[in-house]
Amino acid sequence: MLVCPSCKRLLKVRYGARRAPACFHDCLRRCDACRVGYSNALEDPAIIWEDPCQNLPEEMRSGALDAVALAANVHNRNSKRFRFGFSTSEDAVTWVIFGWLGRQGQDFLADNLARNLGLVPGTKPKVLLWGAPLGNDLTARPLSQGLQKVSTRLGERPSFRSEPDIILDFGDAGLAVIEVKVNSGNISKTKRRKFGRYVRSEAFADPKGTIDGGGYQLARNWRIGWKLAAGRPFRLVNLSKTRECQRQKFEDCLAQTPSARFQHLRWQDFFRIAKNPNQWPEWMIAWLDHPHRLKKETENAQTPHS
Ligand SMILES: [Zn+2]
Questions:
Q1: How far does residue 75's CA lie from ligand 1's centre (Å)?
Q2: Minimal CA–CA distance to 60: which of 12, 92, 28, 31?
Q3: Which one, out of 111, 114, 286, 291, has a CA that is 20 to 30 A from the CA of 278?
Q4: Residues 275, 279, 281: CA angle, nearest 5 degrees
Q5: Which residues of the chain are under the pLDDT cut of 50?
């Protein structure tokens, strides 16, 4: 029997369909007083907060739902907002880390990360989160408009636009698209017809192989970033815990050049390269230190006690 994560009261299982919750009231185990419950999975259920902000560290609550409300995929916004309240939410991890970095002035992104990606360091990037300017930065608006144009040219409908997790535009130094993964994989069974518009392009050496491989999100982001970079250096970065074995197959299907490359970045390396001069705040490490988030990966981010 599960207890409420907040008041520790025992939670009786309610009658109802044991399906993936589409709203808080679909949770068969929930505490209405604390407005928190569990997903209906029998093993290792996600904790679900009715107010998604309760899933975040206090320091990153302001601005969070505004960012979700600006996400490029309009059709998906409500569901994105609901899932933001899950302890397993990748979007919440993306927001807490990159939202915080954005507030630090992006020096880390300009230097350490650019260098690590083989881009000329030094230029502070314009940053898009889910296709919208991070922190409502007006100077990033031309970039989000550029992304919309690419989306329209690819035949995406206005309410169903692709929203790469993070886009960093370093100007002449290049452009990076980051696909953030926490616990899910990159390879999924996606309907083949959805692929077509993205892979019929000079950006792919083997369009059919790409479709067969099933890396739909990555393929989409590769095409969009390629187009948005418009000949400048381009990196598609897959930020995740481990290297998936099928990823090599995906990589082989791309028309990589010395200038346009696919790159895997492990979370633990991400935290390490970002460690100096910026220290990660303790509240963030404490929040990430959860089995549904980046418990093991943050070891390098912790400040050693002297
Ligand atoms: Zn409770």
A1: 32
A2: 92
A3: 291
A4: 130
A5: 305-306
